[in-house]
Write a structure and sequence with these properties.
There is one protein chain. This protein has one helix spanning 2-22; strands spanning 38-44, 49-54, 63-70, 73-80, 85-91, 94-103, 113-125, 139-141, 145-147, 152-155, 164-165, 170-177, 184-192, 195-197, 203-204, 209-216, 226-230, 233-235, 239-240, 244-251, 258-264, 267-274, 276-277, 293-304, 328-338, 343-352, 365-379, 382-395, 406-421, 424-436, 442-456. The strands form seven sheets. The chain has an eight-stranded antiparallel beta barrel. Strands 1, 3, 4, 6, 7, 9 and 11 form a seven-stranded mixed sheet that branches. Strands 14, 16, 18, 19 and 20 form a five-stranded antiparallel sheet that branches. The relative contact order is 0.08. The chain has 463 residues and is mostly beta strands. The model is unreliable at 1-25 (pLDDT under 50). The chain contains one helix and 31 strands. The chain is rod-shaped.
């Protein structure tokens, strides 16, 4: 029995060994095939670039392990076995390394697939824009500037340089790259024109006119644009608006061909021609005469009073001949109103300081009068007026037999004026003054004045 059991065990052991020898050996899973070892991706306008690296589906893979290196920092991610791509939505500009390993259900790992990814930052500044307002396309206006840090860029067949400027419209290729070991990208771009429209009505010469320049493009246009004149054209300050540019223009006399040039820096975006017409003549009007005027002025002079005989003045009603008032200086003011050209009304107020016939001292006489003034001559700078009117002479001081009294008076005379500057006249006036006399008749006195007159309100001349 023991011998039989031993033989059976040997047979089973041999059978297991034979089966084990005949079983195939386990193999690791295949590595993902990404096609190439170096990829470049473009990031416009300073935005993170989305990354997606795909491979064919692999059988027998339980999961993938991906290691993503960003600026020296490593991120490890697990992907399901059914995954066919690695994606990153926020890859920053710069160099990145990606390693992907396939792992089967037994834990066997494939050889790593190593890929280098360069995210190339390209800044596109629209015409009239600033680095603070880049654009990401897909179309770019003529005059746009393309740059990439550390790389040279070129548009189409233009020479490469630190910046590429769009100077021709249409589809073209933007290429940015560097020397050996530096990335290079080539992307198709569309350079769009800038459409410019202006006023359709002609501009009158020698007349300031506010012009609106309409700008349009399928691509963004910046706010910092310049307007230059063509021909005999003066420009005011240009103001940018949402739809274009507003600028004040004035075509000079004799101008024929004028227009405007719109620029973004050194790049001309377009031109606008302006049609011109002569300025319309002012409407014919009949000369209008407006004579209403107000004169105001002051004067100095002398009040000459008769003081001898029975014709001596009776101002103050003196009972003693020695108290008769005689000649003295005066100071006064005048206002005149001329509702029509030739005739007006004047009012005067003056203060005179006459003496006494037979003893020293001065009296005080206030004179008020109204008079009618008729212009006989009004020849631009020179004028002559005939004056006549009435008033009152008031004695303000008591002295001996001369008392405070009020006496009436009439007067007449002439005034000669010389215009020394616009609306300012020198006036010389001589008056014959009649007041009461001591013989119950009339005392014939005189008043001589030198004054200055100005005109207020409208000038009393034809316009």
């Amino acid at each position: 029995m023991r011998t039989t059991g031993f033989l059976v065990g040997c047979v089973l052991l041999a059978t297991f060994a034979t089966s084990a020898a005949a079983a195939p050996a386990a193999h690791p899973p295949s590595a993902p095939a990404l096609g190439q070892a170096w990829y470049t991706v473009v990031a416009f306008a300073g935005r993170p670039a989305p990354i997606k690296l795909a491979w064919p589906a692999l059988a027998g893979v339980h999961r993938f392990r991906a290691r993503w290196t960003d600026a020296g920092a490593q991120v490890e991610l697990d992907l399901p076995g059914t995954a066919t791509a690695f994606e990153r939505s926020d890859a920053a500009p710069g160099h990145h390394d990606l390693s992907i390993i396939a792992i089967d259900g037994r834990g066997s790992e494939s050889e790593p697939t190593e890929v280098a990814v360069d995210v190339v930052a390209i800044t596109a500044i629209p015409p009239g824009g600033t680095p603070a307002s880049p654009t990401a396309g897909p179309a770019f206006a003529i005059g746009s500037t393309f740059t990439s840090p550390g790389l040279a860029c070129q548009l189409g067949s233009a020479p490469a340089g630190p910046q590429a400027v769009a100077i021709a419209i249409g589809a073209t290729l933007l290429a940015c790259g560097g020397g050996p070991g530096q990335p290079r990208v080539e992307i198709p771009v569309v350079i769009a024109p800038v459409m410019i429209a202006g006023p359709t009505a002609p501009i009158a010469r020698e007349t300031p006119t506010r012009v609106h320049i309409t700008l349009g493009s399928v691509a963004p246009i910046g706010a910092t644009l310049q307007v230059e004149a063509i021909g005999d054209l003066d420009l005011g300050e240009a103001e940018r608006s949402a739809t274009g540019i507003d600028v004040s223009v004035t075509a000079r006399a004799g101008a024929i061909h004028t227009g405007l040039v719109i620029r973004a820096g050194d790049i001309e975006l377009g031109r606008l021609e302006l049609a011109l017409v002569d300025r319309a003549p002012p409407p014919a009007t009949e000369p209008r005469i407006d004579w209403f005027a107000l004169d105001a002025g002051g004067q100095i002079g002398a009040l000459v009073l008769p003081s001898d005989g029975r014709g001596a003045n009776a101002l103050g009603n003196p009972s003693d001949a020695n108290d008769t008032l005689t000649t003295g200086p005066l100071l006064g003011a005048r206002v005149g109103l001329f509702p029509i050209h030739r005739v007006g009304i004047e009012s005067e107020l003056s203060l005179a300081v006459p003496g006494y016939r037979g003893h020293p001292g001065q009296s005080m006489v206030i004179s008020t009068r109204a008079q009618l003034a008729v212009r006989l001559i009004d020849d631009h700078r020179y004028g002559l007026r005939i004056i006549g009117g009435a008033g009152a002479l008031g004695i303000l001081a008591n002295r001996a037999t001369s008392q405070r009294t009020v006496n009436g008076a009439v007067h007449g005379g002439a005034a000669f004026t010389i215009e020394t500057r616009p609306d300012l006249w020198l006036r010389i006036e001589v008056l014959h003054v009649l007041t009461s006399a001591q013989d119950a008749g009339f005392a014939h006195g005189m008043e001589i004045q030198l004054g200055v007159v100005t005109r207020l309100g409208r000038r009393d001349r034809s316009r």
